[in-house]
Design brief:
42% helix; 21 helices; Beta-Lactamase; Rossmann fold; 3 domains; extended; 592 residues
Length: 592
């Protein structure tokens, strides 16, 4: 509104100027050689209301618009700097507004225009000098750094700096502060850059995590050092300790970028900031919490990896893929996807549903509003908002009225919702859901039963459970083969005539051996990427009886084994026999 008021005021002054000098005056063409004395020369400038020089008119308009913009900025900036708007806006308005047309008209134009510029610039730069003395260097305007920053922004951020600042060293990376309004975020970013070394250390840490494919870093602050641990392929690996002083500065930068309090070292804090690196854009999160020995910080950098689209890409063997497709392609029933928390359930659901025939069958489902899970093509999802009072079972009932062939509910959190889904699964529709389970498919079965639905309705609807755990793949660049003993093969249940060699991670060099550079592919970890170990429970009448009569883990596991279903260990041994992973790795995964 303030800018509109200045604009109207300026247009009014301009109208007065044009109306007062609309005759053959010298407002815009002041010269002894006028159109009256030389009509042929000035014929092109003749208008109904006088003679206007377009070049001088454009110059006046440019100065006028500069005045509108800067005076509006002064009016908005004064309250933020706790300066009196009356003391600074009024001089900026009237020094130029009341003298502009007089200076341009009453004296020769060139001299008048210079004086008009002075009438605009003098009060403006007096204000700029005053407010710059009250703010931090990064908040000052019309300085060399500010002008360079503005020019870089106008050029799309591609303008190269003449001299790199200290914070601009290290990996080429764009960082933006988040967690507050734009002005506060900009202030936090500039404040973080005041610690240039620490700012560069943050950039180097992000680049290191991306290179090593580490999704999380845990920093445990003690009295003198900071222990660094990296989460790579689902396993925490120790890193090189850092000194406390430099790590404190780095943590200050991290907290500033997230709009957190750097001085708070006991209470829990969390936030995010933006990073663009290697062509990828992600929001990195920081969570800090005081501990008995100091402070623990979890720094998360979402590593963007290639999406897995098929069950085969997850590591599932072809025979099992066909069995899974057969169960999911049934005309009715309930199929459950299961995995550990943060154990690949999202990917399993996505690839599993992508393997169904969604072109021949009409799929629909419900999802919580704001869910960040990836959508599956050709599944019509209806979103609901519990905060707005939406009831999921009511939303699902509305979806069912459209007569879909199959239904998908990612999370079931109430008996009422589960009851609606079971009615459809026991009727004419194939239904899909997912659940977290730590151990195996049998636990997934009981997790859903714990929602207190009738066991007989649940067991009659259930036709299959697909459970997965993730293990690390051996790095093909540095894995070592070895000859397994007959006793080892017998213990693993592998026929000796079927496998001649197995693989393991590289043998560490001895104390007298020359040091070798780490593997370029895995960085010396010995593993690169992960693969799924799958358990497919095909539910038969024996398993259904166990669910109804003896709903316990051991009873359901026994019934599943009797039905001919393979357990996780059997599938894991297949991965060892084919050289995909190591004995040590499956031992670790199965014992967790």
């Amino acid at each position: 509104m303030r800018r509109i008021a200045f604009l109207v005021f300026g247009l009014l002054l301009l109208a007065i100027t044009l109306s007062l000098f609309g005759f053959e005056s010298e407002l815009f063409a002041q010269s002894t050689d006028t159109a009256a004395s030389n009509p042929e020369k000035y014929k092109w400038t003749e208008f109904e209301y006088g003679y206007l020089n377009p070049f001088k008119l454009i110059a006046m308009f440019l100065l006028f618009w500069l005045w509108v913009f800067t005076t509006d900025w002064v009016g908005q900036d004064c309250p933020e700097r706790k300066l009196s708007p009356q003391a600074w806006v009024i001089p900026n308005v009237f020094a130029f507004g009341l003298t502009f047309w007089l200076l341009a008209a009453a004296i020769p134009f060139f001299l008048g225009y210079l004086l008009a510029i002075a009438a605009w610039a003098v009060p403006l730069f007096m204000y700029i000098k005053t407010r710059n003395n009250l703010v931090d260097p990064h908040q000052r305007v019309m300085t060399k750094d500010h002008i360079r920053f503005v020019m870089a922004g106008l050029s799309g951020g591609k303008m190269k700096r003449e001299v790199k600042e200290g914070w601009d060293a290290g990996p080429e990376m764009e960082i933006k502060a988040l967690g507050a309004d734009d002005n506060k975020n900009t202030e936090n970013l500039y404040t973080a850059r005041k610690l240039p070394d620490a700012f560069v250390w943050v950039k180097e840490l992000v680049a290191e995590m991306v290179t090593r494919r580490s999704t999380k870093v845990m920093m445990d602050y003690t009295k003198d050092t900071v222990a660094m641990r990296y989460l790579i392929d689902g396993v925490w690996l120790a890193g090189e300790n850092r000194d406390r002083e430099s790590s404190d500065q780095m943590l200050t930068v991290l907290k500033l970028l997230c709009n957190l309090n750097p001085n708070e070292r006991r209470a829990r804090q969390s936030g995010e900031f933006f990073v663009k690196y290697d062509g990828k854009k992600v929001n990195c999160s920081v969570t800090s919490q005081g501990t008995q020995t100091g402070e623990r910080v979890i720094f998360v950098v979402p590593v963007v990896t290639a999406k897995l689209e098929t069950l085969e890409e997850l590591g599932m063997r072809e025979a099992m893929i066909q069995e899974v497709k057969g169960l999911m392609g049934a005309p009715n029933g309930l199929f459950v996807f299961a995995a550990r928390p943060e154990g690949g359930l999202t990917t399993l659901v996505h690839t599993g549903l992508s393997s169904t025939d969604r072109l021949m069958r009409d799929f629909a489902g419900i999802e919580v509003k704001g869910c960040r899970e990836p959508e599956v093509m050709n599944i019509a999802l209806k979103y609901y908002d519990p905060a707005a009072g939406d009831v999921p079972e009511t939303v699902l009932t509305a979806v069912i009225r459209n007569q879909p062939d199959a239904l998908f509910v990612r999370r079931i959190d109430s008996p009422a919702l589960f009851g609606v889904l079971l009615d459809q699964a026991n009727g004419t529709r194939m239904c899909f859901t997912s659940v977290n389970a730590k151990e195996d498919a049998a636990e997934a079965v009981l997790r859903l039963l714990s929602l207190k639905v009738p066991a007989d309705e649940y067991s009659s609807a259930l036709n299959g459970v697909l459970y997965t755990r993730l293990c690390r793949r051996l790095c093909k660049g540095c894995r070592e083969e070895f000859q397994p003993s007959v006793a080892l093969l017998k213990r693993l249940g592998i026929p000796p005539d079927k496998v001649e060699k197995l693989y393991k991670t590289p043998t560490p060099p001895g104390p007298d051996d020359p040091k070798k550079p780490p593997c370029e592919h895995c960085g010396g970890v010995g593993y690169y990427g992960r693969v799924g170990i799958f358990e497919l429970m095909k539910v038969d009448d024996g398993i259904r009886r166990a669910i109804v009569k003896s709903p316990k883990l051991e009873a359901i596991r026994a019934a599943s084994k009797q039905a001919g279903n393979k357990v996780l260990q059997e599938e894991a041994i297949r991965l060892v026999a084919t050289g995909v992973t190591s004995l040590e790795e499956i031992s670790r995964v199965l014992k967790e």
